[in-house]
Amino acid sequence: MAAKQITSAFPIVKKPNRGQKSMKDSDQLPSTSTHDQAAVDSIDDLQILKNFDLTLEFGPCTGITRLERWERAQKHGLNPPDEVKDILLKNKDEEYQMCLWKDYEI
Amino acid sequence: MFEKKGGNHPDDLLSKPSQTHKACERQSGNFSDCSDRFLLKDKTFSRQYAHLYAERLWEVRPKVEASARKKWVPYTVHTMRLTHTSVYIPLGKDIVIRKLHELKSDETCVVIGTLFKHMELKPSILQEISEEHNLMPQPVRTKYVDESDKLYLEDELQRIILMGDLDVQTSVTGVIIAVYGKEPEDDQGKFHVEKYCFQMLSDQVPRPVIQNDKYLVLISGLEIGSNEEQIFSLQLFVDMVTGMLGNSEEQSHCAEICRVIVAGNSLSSSTQDKDSLQKAKYLSKKTAAGSVDAVKTLDDVFTQLASSVDVDLMPGEYDPANYTLPQQPLHKCMFPEASRYPTFHTVTNPYDFKVEGVRFLGTSGQAVQDIVKYSTNEEPLDILEKTLEWGHLAPTAPDTLGCYPFYKEDPFIINDCPHVLFAGNMTKFDSKVFKGCGGQEVLLVSVPRFSQTSTAVMVNLRTQDCVPMQFAAPSTMEPNR
Q: What residue spans carry the region label Disordered (chain A) (predicted)?
């Protein structure tokens, strides 16, 4: 089989935010560089939380908040990563607290 | 049984009323309630049951592992050349415990997981709505067992079918088990079991020595509101316990009863009138529910009882409480008169409590009846013994028995070994002392339905003996000629 790029079957779809973000930053004051950093951090944090959800060792993730799942994993000695708890305690946003499948009624 | 305790009390039943009338003091028992884990704090039903199974596995696994390490020591068999005898030589190392995804072919190891019994005849909602079956409803059976039932072992990630020495017919879904065996190279996908074990029963807190005889009465299945209700026998029971019957000797013996536990089904199934739900509202506007009169009768009965002795009322299958286990206490507004007494308590099902240091644990029988339906076990005492061995009060919950979707704990796991384990609403009275391998002694009691047998059970807290209290009444009136 010839080496096919996955992008030939699934082309990259550029998110609409990306272009706007760079445009916004360029004509604003340098103090917004922290704002930009925070945005990147939040994407990283969400990625870490998403990986926490998808880790099967900590049990099922639907129907309970991430903090509850973390506490439960801690109780049973499964060593959940501490940074996940830090992120959860810092941000009380629903996006952070609820699991990946929060919009689905399961 | 009261007659045997000979006394020299003069027969004061037919004597003249006297000024100096001795009053009997009822024995009191030190009571403490341990059922806090059965009370539901928040009621969110939007969770899946996977959490309950995961929690059960995590909590019970370390105990099953300890039990397996203690029981199974790996060995090799060495046949002596001259005498041709076999010698078992311990290998000096621990058994290997593997998760299912780490299994290697032909390696003898131990796997710990949840048992799942695949049953062909188990009612399944998917089969019911399946178009292939032309929407024929599945018949309601008394037993759903079949020859072709199979056992699977499931851990967090995988499942494997079990072959070998495990008795499929007497096992049920939901038990945490450790199996010792191997997955053979030529039969992959199946685990051949040589030995198996469950959680070890924890050590019992020793019972304190009690000086006097004290009794606790267990009664269940009053089933008021049906055609078979035994109001006369029930009134006899109430009069007996409150000391209205017999001479002063009998009254003083009844004063040794310190508590009465009503283990479920105080209302009968006929009070759960399902027809009224189907009928149009305008037709059923003036009709009162069948349960209203029954509850009034019950309130009357409990008022009489509570005025004299501590009463704990557990909900049962036919009582107006929630369907899922653990059933929450009945609301006190149903018993306005009885609730005025501080001795009247409504409690959860299952119920866990301590009287005079004797630990009682019991249910209104739903768990036992469910195990009867989904396995070939018949005797309630056998099933109670098995639940102690398995370490779980209701292993079939939530599979076939309704259960609240817990996520943080599984309250049905038997962590502390009780002294008395009872199940209400059984077909007959029976009792047995179960001796555990750690020296524990548990009295297993099957409390019969009062509406069928007119029998209550008295448990002696001092000797851990158990006696039935049976009431007979003339069953039919002579027809008028």
A: 1-37
> Closest by alpha carbon to B389, among B443, B325, B435?
B435
What is the count of residue pairs from A and B with beta carbons less than 8 Å apart? 34
From B47, B51, B405, residue closest to A59, measured CB to CB: B51
Q: Check residue B13 and report its DSSP letter.
A: T
Q: How far is B42 from chain A (nearest CA, A)?
A: 13
Q: Report the predicted TM-score, pTM, of the whole model to 2 decimal places.
A: 0.82
* ipTM exceeding cut-off 0.85 for this assembly: no
Taking CA atoms, what residue in A is nearest to B62? A76
Which stretches in chain A have pLDDT values below 50?
1, 19-29
- Cα torsion B318, B323, B325, B329: sign: negative
**Alpha carbon B339 to chain centroid distance?**
26
- Sequence-separated (6 or more) residues with CB below 8 Å from residue B388: B201, B414, B417, B421, B434, B436, B442, B444
DSSP secondary structure string, B393-440? S-TTTTTTS-B---SS--TTB--S--SEEEEEEESS-EEEEEE-TTS-
> Which residues in B lie closer than 8 A to residue A80 (C-beta atoms)?
none
Q: Token pair of B208, please? A: 């304190």
Cis check: omega of the bond before B395, within 30 degrees of 0: no
